[in-house]
Automatic annotation (TrEMBL):
Coiled coil: none annotated. The lineage of its organism: Bacteria, Pseudomonadati, Pseudomonadota, Alphaproteobacteria, Hyphomicrobiales. Residues 6-97 form the Pyrroline-5-carboxylate reductase catalytic N-terminal domain. Belongs to the pyrroline-5-carboxylate reductase family. The keyword Lipid biosynthesis does not apply. NCBIfam families: PRK06476.1. This is NADP oxidoreductase coenzyme F420-dependent. One of its GO terms (molecular function) is pyrroline-5-carboxylate reductase activity. GO terms for biological process: L-proline biosynthetic process. Keywords: NADP, Plasmid. It comes from Rhizobium leguminosarum bv. trifolii (strain WSM1325). NADP(+) binds at A71, I72, R73, P74.
Length: 260
């Protein structure tokens, strides 16, 4: 499947990642229209890809596109979206974080086909997993091209995956803490990073291997009885690591659901 014209209102990091993924050969779109606001990103993409067109303004993006992505920060979303005129039946995909569907529909003010999605930076290399809601064949096909689409059957499912996606910084933060500990203990930092990065990459590859082995089973597999991995896991649990992580995820979910 290939879409004739895709547009992005907002030209930030996620837009850049999606455009790069969509135009990797074989390209998924004939034309991609981007907002002129982030001039450097827009110019870079237009110079690199012949299919990229820099629009006059956000309304121009909407008018020229079959599928429009709203890739804007939640702080300015209402102001930006209310200023636009959409066509009834137009496909609109909102990438705006922590924003209720009802609010988006009200701001759009037209009978559009609205889908919400949470793309991650890895879509640039067509290796991203993206939650979408509600299920939609066309949008899922697009994100399957960029990696893997997970179609959520309810808003609750979508919000939970949005909360889980907030783990990315913590993942790298744990890697950094291990590297800092190694350096403090006498190992040069570059050598520590050279070891930790492929170690974590191998663990992620193992978790994502065919068979869908439960994470709990993998944890037991790598925690030899009386071994070092078991010791670290036990200390992490006993000293509040699991409780802190659970509390952080609960807090993120409450924020997404507008409860705090």
């Amino acid at each position: 499947m290939k879409i004739d014209s895709i547009g992005f209102v907002g030209t930030g990091a996620i837009t850049e990642a999606m455009v790069r993924g969509l135009l990797t050969e074989p390209a998924y779109a004939s034309e991609i229209h981007v907002s002129p606001r982030s001039a450097h990103i827009a110019a870079t993409l237009a110079e690199e890809f012949a299919a990229v067109r820099i629009a006059k303004d956000n309304q121009d993006v909407v008018e020229r596109s079959d599928m429009v992505f709203l890739a804007i920060r939640p702080q300015v979303a209402e102001e930006v979206v209310r200023a636009l005129s959409f066509r009834d039946g137009q496909m609109v995909v909102s990438l705006v974080a922590a924003t209720e569907r009802q609010a988006l529909s009200e701001w759009i003010g037209a009978d559009v086909h609205l889908v919400q999605a949470i793309p991650l930076p890895f879509v640039a290399g067509r290796q991203g997993v993206t939650a979408i809601y509600p299920p939609d064949t066309a949008v899922a096909a697009l994100f399957d091209t960029l990696g893997t689409a997970v179609q959520c059957q309810s808003r609750k499912q979508y919000d939970l995956l949005a909360a889980a996606s907030a783990m990315m910084s913590t993942y790298f933060g744990i890697m950094e803490q291990v590297a800092v500990w190694l350096e403090r203990s006498g190992l040069e930092k570059a050598k520590g990073q050279a070891y930790i990065a492929p170690l974590f990459a191998s663990l992620a590859q193992k978790a994502n291997s065919p068979g869908n082995e439960p994470f709990s089973a993998l944890s037991r597999e790598f925690a030899t009885k009386g071994g070092l991995n078991e010791q670290v896991l036990s200390d992490f649990e006993k000293k509040g690591g699991v409780a802190a992580l659970t509390a952080a995820l609960d807090g993120v979910l409450a924020r997404i659901e507008g409860k705090n």
